[in-house]
Amino acid sequence: AYESITVIPTSILECAGDSLYLSLPMEMNRDYPESDSIRAAIPAFIDTVEGLEKLREDLFRRPLPHKLPRMVAVDSEWYFDDNSKEGTPEVRPKRVKHRSMSVATLQIAYVDENKTPLVLKSFVIDLLSNQPGFQTLAKECVSWLFGSASCDMTVLGFAFGGDLRQLRKYAGIGGYNKNHKEKSLEAVASRCLDIQHLLASTEEIKTGSVPGLKKCAQLYFQKALKKDDQTSDWRERPLRRSQLEYAALDAVILLVLLSQKKQEDEKKQNSCT
Questions:
Q1: Phi and psi for 152 in degrees, rounded to 5?
Q2: 2-260, what's its fold?
Q3: Which pLDDT score, from 0 to 100, does residue 29 have?
Q4: What is the chain written as a DSSP string?
Q5: How many angstroms separate the CA atoms of 42 and 20, rounded?
Q6: pLDDT < 50 regions, the chain
Q7: Between β-strands 101-112 and 71-80, what pairing exists: parallel, antiparallel or unpaired?
Q8: In the chain, where are the structural domains located?
Q9: β-sheet bridge partners, residue 75
Q10: Nearest to 108 by CA among 63, 149, 52, 148
Q11: Distance from C-alpha of 260 to C-alpha of 22, rounded to nearest angstrom
Q12: pTM for the full model?
């Protein structure tokens, strides 16, 4: 996966000088520092067919000379089904056992290599949107990304098993739809990279005590990853600005972490030669 990631400095998420936490640019009229090679864009919330069609075109379909992304980082936010009596919005869904869960948003981040400087883009897709035609299109996009052998894009996630199950359930992929024709879920899994295990030490993997995202961020960033919105009710609309930033940041940070891990490994390799 290293060949699919460019150099992304940690400063791209440490741009808010008055904040103790990692952040993304959220306003057009503010000056945000950027490197000579890459800058971060304001996260986009997508709840319309038009917006999702544009994203699908940029990710999968635009012809040359447009450069399609080689890698996308993904995350999702969940909610308790109405018929589930387990948990409340104050309890993090992913940590509750025996729950009945559904996915509320899909976050996608990637590096747009068609601009100079490069642009680190992020999108929060509203999988609860009731606009006519949106659900059909969203399920097609999720099926392509997580259930199609013809998609060769690397998918980067963190503790990704739960997200993958929820997204496949949402789109009716594999065992969640007996009529689903894809027979290549193993091939799809081979292009999914869980960076949690990449960043874990041998001892952590052996003992099963792999680090969470906040701890992994501490390895490379001077500022902390804020998790206050982790326990939000992700069914509420509109999302608060802090929710939008939190959701997008959980995808964006994966690309930065992979880039930093790549640079770290290259330094170790060079020091041994």
A1: -105, 15
A2: Nucleotidyltransferase; domain 5 (3.30.420)
A3: 61
A4: -GGG-----GGGG---TT-SB------TTS-----SSEEEPPPEEE-SHHHHHHHHIIIIIPPTTS---SEEEEEEEEEE-TT--S--TTS-GGG-TT--EEEEEEEEEEEETTSSSEEEEEEEEETT--STTHHHHHHHHHHHHHH-TT---EEEESSTHHHHHHHHHHHT-GGG-TT-----HHHHHTTEEEHHHHHS-HHHHHHT----HHHHHHTT-SSB---GGGG--TT-SSPPHHHHHHHHHHHHHHHHHHHHHHHHHHHHHHHT-
A5: 19
A6: 85-87, 91-93, 180-183
A7: antiparallel
A8: 2-260
A9: 107
A10: 52
A11: 15
A12: 0.90
Structure tokens at 53: 């069609």
Tokens for 149, please give them: 């052998």
| Structure tokens, 192 | 């999914």
* Tens-digit pLDDT profile for residues 50-98: 999 999 999 998 898 999 999 999 999 999 886 654 445 554 445 555 5
